[in-house]
Amino acid sequence: MAQALLKASCHDAPVLENRLLGSGPAAGGIWKLVLDFPGWTLWRPGQFVMLRPGSFGQELIWGRPISIGDYQNGQLTLYILNTGRGTEKLAALTPGETCTVWGPLGNGFAQEKSASTLMLCGGIGIAPFVGYTHAHPAPEKLTLLFGHRLPLDSYPWDAFSSISARGYLEQGPADLQEFITAMREAMVTTAAEKGLVLSCGPLPFLRTVQRLAKETGARTQLSLENRMGCGVGACLGCVAEDDQGKRVQTCSRGPVFWSTKITV
Amino acid sequence: MAQALLKASCHDAPVLENRLLGSGPAAGGIWKLVLDFPGWTLWRPGQFVMLRPGSFGQELIWGRPISIGDYQNGQLTLYILNTGRGTEKLAALTPGETCTVWGPLGNGFAQEKSASTLMLCGGIGIAPFVGYTHAHPAPEKLTLLFGHRLPLDSYPWDAFSSISARGYLEQGPADLQEFITAMREAMVTTAAEKGLVLSCGPLPFLRTVQRLAKETGARTQLSLENRMGCGVGACLGCVAEDDQGKRVQTCSRGPVFWSTKITV
Amino acid sequence: MPTETSPVSPAVRVGNLALKNPILTASGTFGYGLEFAPYGDLKSLGGIIVKGLSLKPRLGNPMPRLAETPCGMLNAIGLQNIGVEAFLQDKLPALPHQEVPVIANLYACDADEFAALGGILARAEGIAAIEVNVSCPNVASGGILFGQDPIQAARVTEAVKKQAGETPVWVKLTPNVSDIAAVARAVEKAGADALCCINTLPGMAVDLERRTPRLANVIGGLSGPAIKPVALRCVWEVARAVKIPVIGVGGISSARDVLEFILAGATAVQVGTANFMRPDAAFAMAAALPAAMQALGISSLEELRGQLKV
Amino acid sequence: MPTETSPVSPAVRVGNLALKNPILTASGTFGYGLEFAPYGDLKSLGGIIVKGLSLKPRLGNPMPRLAETPCGMLNAIGLQNIGVEAFLQDKLPALPHQEVPVIANLYACDADEFAALGGILARAEGIAAIEVNVSCPNVASGGILFGQDPIQAARVTEAVKKQAGETPVWVKLTPNVSDIAAVARAVEKAGADALCCINTLPGMAVDLERRTPRLANVIGGLSGPAIKPVALRCVWEVARAVKIPVIGVGGISSARDVLEFILAGATAVQVGTANFMRPDAAFAMAAALPAAMQALGISSLEELRGQLKV
Ligand SMILES: Cc1cc2nc3c(=O)[nH]c(=O)nc-3n(C[C@H](O)[C@H](O)[C@H](O)COP(=O)(O)OP(=O)(O)OC[C@H]3O[C@@H](n4cnc5c(N)ncnc54)[C@H](O)[C@@H]3O)c2cc1C
Ligand SMILES: Cc1cc2nc3c(=O)[nH]c(=O)nc-3n(C[C@H](O)[C@H](O)[C@H](O)COP(=O)(O)OP(=O)(O)OC[C@H]3O[C@@H](n4cnc5c(N)ncnc54)[C@H](O)[C@@H]3O)c2cc1C
Ligand SMILES: Cc1cc2nc3c(=O)[nH]c(=O)nc-3n(C[C@H](O)[C@H](O)[C@H](O)COP(=O)(O)O)c2cc1C
Ligand SMILES: Cc1cc2nc3c(=O)[nH]c(=O)nc-3n(C[C@H](O)[C@H](O)[C@H](O)COP(=O)(O)O)c2cc1C
Ligand code: FES
Ligand code: FES
Q1: Please, which contacts does C83-86 make with residues 24 or more away whose CB atoms are closer than 8 Å?
Q2: What pTM did the predictor assign?
Q3: If you ran DSSP here, which 8-state letter would residue C42 be given?
Q4: Any atom of ligand 5 within 6 Å of the Cβ of A255
Q5: Best interface-test mutation with A: which of B56, B59, B85, B94 has the largest number of A CBs within 10 A?
Q6: pLDDT at D1
Q7: What is the ipTM of this complex?
Q8: Angle formed by the axes of helices B203-216 and B173-192, to 10°?
Q9: Which residues of C101-129 are buried (b: 16+ CB within 10 A; e: fewer)?
């Protein structure tokens, strides 16, 4: 599956746009970065790219893995949470500069035209669902549940205006419980409809989804966010353990795995 | 002498202005950088500062030594030739950013109010003479001879409009010869008047001046541009050999030395 | 009608092995080669050194296995690999090994295992050379690495050599020794055809908040531009100590870096961590090398090799 | 009326020597101390370790002596110093040695010279401890460094110890050995009061255009953030091998770095190359340490030292 998609390339892509979403502070905020990156004929939502701006110099070695937010007319849109040294430098990119990009990488989410599809995301895990929603042939089949800490306008929330989407602001343990309950209920329904559950978010979130998948029997995919070195399957730094006890690269064999086939 | 002057300090100084002089390309060009750096009560032309912008990260270790171009009303003016990795990052500083600065460092040029004073400079070695000219109580005593490769408007040439100043554009060996001949003649005159010769420029230039000083007997100072680690006399990386065969720090015991007392 | 061709040639020979340029990919940083096929023409490289192979498949170390450090990185992958048989069956045939030398890196825990691996690989079609990774603990002698003891390193070399037949045997040295030249001389005497300098430097990083090491294995190998000065020094010391070719590795990330190692005495080089900085790094260096040579005014690398004026 | 004071204390003890905080300045990077007086209060430091001293003044190596490398630097100063007598007469009295411990670093080429130096310094007023730099070639044994051989390192330690009386003797180890723990144990047995890890890593840089080494001495010592992972690993290995205090040094450039070394087992640290990144670096770290401790939820460094969960 992944093989056929892997027409990856590496370029220094010009920055077309880079702006902070919402009105919060830049540190800890989310940036919308648009790059001029023509040439992909095939890509799949849930795939990602590696980004390495010139400002990394030789000091920061690795590119940073970022989900493809959307790709249209040769323009690559990314949503980046400014959370550390590397993403801070990505947030500082300005139009006219270039950034080294390689991709598309990894496998991407399953798409089943006629299956009701539940998208579950936490925080910046919302990013791949922008393109997923955009590319889906039957958006009426889509539902999105979103746990978030920043105000909704800090995320690409308007991308979901035409589907059934609900946000859960997490301010305390009770909010979290509400979100989990909502996810469980939706998963029960989806399971009953033989639908598809797709999820992306931080590790504790993924663990919860995996547990719910087991409990509800919903067909569920998890997108893992392991730390990456190369992004292309070579360094073996990003491995996760599969159901056979084998160690598989998250970057090239994932980042999306069936919940039953992977240990998170 | 140097001791009394050393009221040095270290600050993150805001950039007030940074612009390329002249109309040449940025790489290999000269930038006028003005920093907000209040607090010096005493400084002497020929002294320098160390500059280390945040963009060095941990990748470029050392500050870069840059002559004090001028210092007025708490504003520090520097002229920087964009010649390598470090000076390229200095050239990229923009107003609003800060740059770590420590200084004033070193000893500075002699000033003798009533002595006719000949300033000899090559390339970016012109920088300290901007402040020297500005601070001199008797500018009519000053003469400047300037060997240069870029057009004059790439240098702070207008700082010398009120004194006797002449530029020698070096395009080939004949031009260089003309410059050297002019320097020799001027040194002969200065020597006869028991005047002072001050020089700043690249190593081959300084070697020539030292030879001419010996031949003409002119009282001559050389400002050395040794590679520096710390700038404060601690690392012993910048030493030159004095006339006693001792190794002295260029940063704290120089950068200005009497031509008869130092090996270049 | 003869066309004007540039007289610059980056070709080199490592012993009997002719390479179209000196740029090899370092073991463990280029997968089994095919991972990088989307980013350049594998055949444009001097050679491909694949991930370290062991007799049986290995799971490697637990996660996390990587940490980023200033101008470098730590890894404790721990030799996860599919095993020599799976490599020969599934991976090697897919590589253009007729057109670009494929070098097998091998890892074992005792001399017999090294010899067995060497034998299997030497008999395989399409393996141009064998690189012996002696940076592994010698279980029999209480954990010190084979490569830290000249006698043990020589013993392993001899054992592999005996099985390798015509296939050249390269030995990859660890910098974590008091006297790398002594190890180099011992390994040369034991019959090695070339020496590769260097493997990673043992290092460590910690997570203050969690109070844990950043690597599950606690200690990992430091690589990248940070170690370039150490690698260059090792190449220089080893090249002066032995007559066999030296292959430089450690922090190389540009065509100029390649030339610096050759100036210090290397015959060829390996590109490791730079492959992570961008996946076309090795290809770009191979492409840039002729122009970099021209800028230095040399038409063959022979003119530069070991020409450092001291 | 008692005022609310922060309970956070960065004070530590290195054996019998009490330090107000763990931040010492590394030898050779802080001159004789006074060079940095314009940039901070010397008395706010844990201690000042001065440039390596020898019996007679030394000119050091020819120029150039410095090269910048990725996240690091090479130096081959070669122990230029004014000699122990001039130091005691001209420099030491000007330092606030009553209020901040001044530690003398010493360098010699044989055990007798080490002993003589140790004796002179131990008898001097105002020297809180002696740091023995064993990273020097042992002329009698053909160039290998004292610090690369456990037996030689122990011999030097004993020789200095015998002359040092009550003055604590610290020994500064080189990372350029196969087994730093073995050297550490030998030196501990020989009576050292503390161990400093690490001195620089031997490295090299070249100038392609000129075809020359960037250092007149060809090889120099690598320091700075690039080597932090190696230093941290050495501290960890040594702290587990000995009972005496370990002082971490190598690439430390922030208060968090200080805490990382303490987590790995160090009792105190030294700030070296960071002093070149800005001259107030050590002062800034000393000032920032209490807040950094508070952020970690500790009120003494004791709570953190060696607490790495593995
Ligand atoms: C397949 C994939 C897709 C991703 N998509 C996006 C995206 O669309 N938008 C986005 O903002 N982020 C995304 N991430 C996460 C992003 O890669 C990390 O936040 C980033 O690498 C952190 O780099 P840094 O230098 O800023 O942080 P560092 O300074 O390196 O570390 C800061 C903090 O982030 C943690 N961290 C570092 N790397 C990762 C990682 N790979 N995953 C999770 N935490 C990490 C560190 O442990 C540390 O706590 C994705 C990660 C993966 C693997
Ligand atoms: C006291 C003093 C005053 C100076 N004043 C000025 C000034 O007013 N304006 C100005 O533009 N420059 C000045 N310089 C020179 C300036 O410091 C160097 O050009 C600068 O450090 C180069 O840094 P880089 O990172 O750009 O170059 P690198 O990438 O480090 O090197 C580029 C090239 O510059 C050479 N170089 C590096 N450092 C020096 C140095 N210290 N002196 C000479 N060549 C060097 C290198 O050998 C190399 O060829 C002064 C130097 C000294 C010692
Ligand atoms: C992720 C990773 C895995 C490695 N695996 C191996 C290996 O299997 N066998 C080996 O001999 N060296 C291995 N190395 C060492 C490299 O081949 C190389 O010697 C080292 O990284 C220094 O070069 P560099 O700085 O260019 O990376 C590995 C290095 C890295 C970074
Ligand atoms: C310029 C310079 C000079 C040094 N001189 C000495 C010295 O005289 N004696 C010594 O024991 N160590 C000396 N060192 C080593 C440092 O004290 C320290 O161990 C090493 O630089 C690693 O720490 P760092 O990375 O913080 O610099 C010197 C280091 C540098 C950079
Ligand atoms: S990031 Fe290198 S194998 Fe996945
Ligand atoms: S630059 Fe450090 S002593 Fe002069």
Answers
A1: C83/C53, C83/C54, C83/C55, C83/C56, C83/C57, C83/C58, C84/C53, C84/C54, C84/C55, C84/C117, C84/C120, C84/C121, C85/C120, C86/C57
A2: 0.96
A3: G
A4: no
A5: B59
A6: 44
A7: 0.95
A8: 40
A9: bbbbbbbbbbbebbbbbbbbbbebeebbb
